[in-house]
Write a structure and sequence with these properties.
The protein contains 29 helices and 26 strands. By secondary structure, the protein is an alpha/beta fold. A hairpin with a 4-residue loop joins strand 22 and strand 23.
Amino acid sequence: MAAAALEGFGAPGDLILDPFGASPRLVREAALAGRAVLVASNNPVTRFVVRRVLQPFPLPVLQAVLARLAAAPKDEGRLEPFLLALYNTTCSRCGETVSADYFVWDRETDAPVLRSYSCPHCSHTMEEPTNAEDRSLAVGFRRRELQHSLALEQLAPRGDPDREHAEAALSAYPDRAVYAIVTLLNKLEQLEPADREAAEALALSAMDQTNALWGHPEGRPRPLQLTASPQFREFNLWRALERAVGDWAMEGEAVPVEPWSAGEFPAAGRVSLFDGPIRELASGIPPGRIEQVLAVLPRPNQAYWTLSALWAAWLWGRAAAAPIKVALRRRRYDWAWHAGALRMAMRSLAPALAGQAAVLGLMPDAEPGFAAAALSGFDSAGFRLTGRALRLAEGQAVLRWQMEAGEPAAVGQGSLGRIERAMAAALRARGEPATFPLMHAAAWFDLAADRQLAALWEEVGEAPTGPVGEVLQTALEDRKTFRRLGKGTEPEAGHYWLVEEAGALPPLADRLEGWIVELLSDGKARSSLEIETAACRAWTGLLTPDRRLLLACLRSYGLWEAALRTWQLREEDQPATRQQDCAEVMALLAELGGRLGFQVEGENPIWWRGGPAEPRSYLFMVEPTARLAEAMRQAGPGAPQAEPAALPAAADHGAAVLPGLFSQAPVLAEAQRKQVLVIPGGRASLLAEKARLDPRLRSWLEGDVQVIKFRHVRRLFSETTLDRSNLEERLALDPPSHQDPQLPLL
């Protein structure tokens, strides 16, 4: 992703500054793309990871170091069996002793309640309740005060004002893990210098895995707060060391990396690493020397920052942990604090930047609060937002700023109206309801593009995250402009749509579907990455499609060649083939309606009119695509109704639904008519995905129209027992989500 971003950002050989060092992968990709990279990293743990991602450990080195640790002497035995024995349990099948992979603890009872193991004696693999021996063994480690004190002394000895904060950090570990970690650290000190760094890498991963922040059963992808989960996994330390070998054995060539020396800059393809904050690095850079800044924007992570101080002290001593020891004292990081931290960092960097220097920020976890903090901080530091892309489902944003001299413009009048207009414009551009994060992004991006956030910061004297959020919420509550779709009362719940739809484009999902068909129609085979890259370039800003929708479109129309790993248009979706398919289904419906005794009228839609004795009537529309916006609009409440007319069939697979396709039905009582949409089977999953994203479509499909597939029409046509009495039952056998309906035998 970083390499792709750099294609339009500067040129090979340019000097790039990463002021945060938050992503080792970003640094590596930038260097491999031919850039000279200067990185500031104040966190010794992150700095260690950056170095070892740039210069990976060979797999044999890691395996050899693990073997030496395994063979290290411990209590008249070896370290490996000693550590494994700390997690011993009994196999419920054969009764043999086995080392558990992990125990699941219940925080309320403060005891392990589940155990997971694979028995090497009988191959029994199970997660099952613990027994009395398991609980007794775990409780026994609470009496190991020596190991607890040793772990604490490494970071904050007695008398240190941060002692109580260090104790809080240490409480993130089960007592057994503390005992095992202290035992491991003692053995690290006995290794040869050549083996030490690889062993530290393994230990770092093991210390990350054995804390109590990893929940069960689903867990958290990445803990952000130093709070144990209600149920957490206590991983086996030795097993964690074994897994860490695979984590650190990264493929790829080594990238040259060297410590930063004031006044010296790396050559192209090399990295200079500064072990301190950006404000200190900036003071050693000549004015105007930096033309480009590329960074993954850091987000607050109390758990990682606090544990980094603990890990650094354990591995490298108190002096190494000193630069980030302050993280022990802060228990909460709000978005206003983060906006201020980013503002301070970028302001300190400004003198080192050339005029009009550009900043490209990649933002994972792009939740609304994070985006607001980043936009506020950069705006107030003198940077105007000049580009943005947002991918909501993946939680990704890419932001581009330009340094701008001078004071920001004064706060514009009518902030409420401006925010309303920005959000309404975003909805019209997308043509479909949007969730709160997109509405939030539309408002904040608009303000940042005009540098209104800096002006607001100066006006209110604090980060504008709170004040703007209040105005935004008021705007969303304006029922003259926005409609709330869905349940819930919080602003973050449900979807938002326009009261007045005039000027709204067709739904983004429908346009993306048509774009995919057009792309595949040229006969060229393309990889998933090629298609996704083309989609992101074609649909920019707030229109960037989510990967799940893009994949649903591809699966609906494309044929995946596994051997070549490419997509092509399916044969049945070639225009001539699909047109013939539609004509066949329409002919079958016309003949079937006559066979069942209905009066058949129209070509598409096809009207089955019931007689006076049985007034139930059916309106069938054969639609080769999943683009139903116009059909839904015309069939909505208040849509004009008229007698059916003979309508031409869709010209090809890419044609939009004909206007008024369901509005051609005569005015009948709801119980007397049924609207049936007939689609190819390949559209069912795409239609389901669109309905998931658009509550209007979902409500329509659930209440006003029944969907069946082409193949079901063929099955109904061939069924000899079908008549008007069982027609409703037979139609219901083919819901959109059902993949292979089977008609009853009798």
